[in-house]
C-alpha cells in the first residue's frame, strides 16, 4: 500500500487557533480496487444510486468524482465525534462505522471509476454564478472558485497533496451544493485543513451568491475526473518535449494501473 494509514488510524493534526485539524497538505494518492469496491457498494446504492447518480438531489452524485476526495470524506465520517454538530446529523456516519480503511479506498476507487451520465438540469445562462465562480468579486472579498476547483469545475490541474482532495463540482446537484456551502458558511464541518479553507471562502458568500454558484455548476455536463497521472499527462503534452513525457509516463502509467 503506497499511502500510509497514519491519516486514518493516527491522524496528523495541525493547530489553527483553538482547532486541531487533520492536515491534508501532504497526503499521498489514494489507491484501491474498483472491482472489490463494486461488491461492497450495495449499501451505498440506496441513496447514491447503482450508477453513482443519487436518487434525490440532496445526496451528492458520486460517479466520476475524485477518489482522493471521496476517500477523505469517508474517513471524516468514520472518525467523527458522535456529538459533532455536522457529522452526528448525517445518515452517512452510521453507514461508515464498520468500514475498514481498505473498504473506504475500494469504494472511493469504484465510484471514481464510474462514467457520470449527463445531468438533467437545464443549461444556465451566463450570469452571476458563472462570474463568481470564474472571477470572484474582489470588492466583496470573494475569491474565484476556479482557483481551487479548476476553470472547468472538474478539480484543479494539480493533483498532488491537498489538491487531490479538492472535488469536481461539474453537474453536481444544486440543492446539495447549497447545503454544503451553507454549512461551510457556518464553519461546518471543520475537521481538516481543506475544511478550514472552504469555511473562510464560504463566509464571504451571501445566500444569493451561494444559490447562483450552485445553479450554474449544476447546469454543467458532468465529466469523469482523470486519475492524477493521466490529468498531468494532458497538461504536460501542451508544454513538455516528447522524450521527457515518455520517460515520466513509463513510470507513472504503472502506478495508474496498480
Number of domains: 1
CATH architecture label: Orthogonal Bundle
Strand content: under 5%
Tally the helices. Answer: 13
Order of H and E elements: HEEHHHHHHHHHHHH
**Residue ranges: pLDDT <50 for 5 or more in a row?**
1-11, 228-258
User: How are the strands of the biggest sheet laid out side by side?
Assistant: 1-2
What is the CATH level 1 assignment? Answer: Mainly Alpha
Helix vs. strand class? mainly alpha
Which whole number gives the mean pLDDT?
Answer: 83
Roughly how much helix do the residues carry, as a percent range?
40-55%
CATH topology (level 3) name: Cytochrome Bc1 Complex, Chain D, domain 2
Determine the CATH superfamily: Cytochrome c-like domain
Please summarize the sheet with the most strands: 2 strands, antiparallel
Gap between N and C termini, in Å? 10 Å
Shape: globular
Report on this model:
Helix 7 crosses helix 11 and helix 12 (228-239) runs antiparallel to helix 13. Residues 1-11 and 228-258 have low confidence and may be disordered. It contains 13 helices and two strands. It starts with 5 loop residues before the first helix and ends with a helix. It has 258 residues and is mostly helical. 48% of the residues lie in helices and 3% in strands.
Briefly summarize what is shown.
The protein has 258 residues and is mainly α.
Question: How would you summarize the topology of this molecule?
Answer:
Blueprint lengths: L5 H4 L3 E4 L2 E4 L11 H7 L1 H7 L18 H13 L12 H5 L4 H13 L14 H8 L10 H4 L24 H12 L7 H10 L4 H12 L9 H12 L2 H16 L1
Antiparallel strand pairs: 1-2
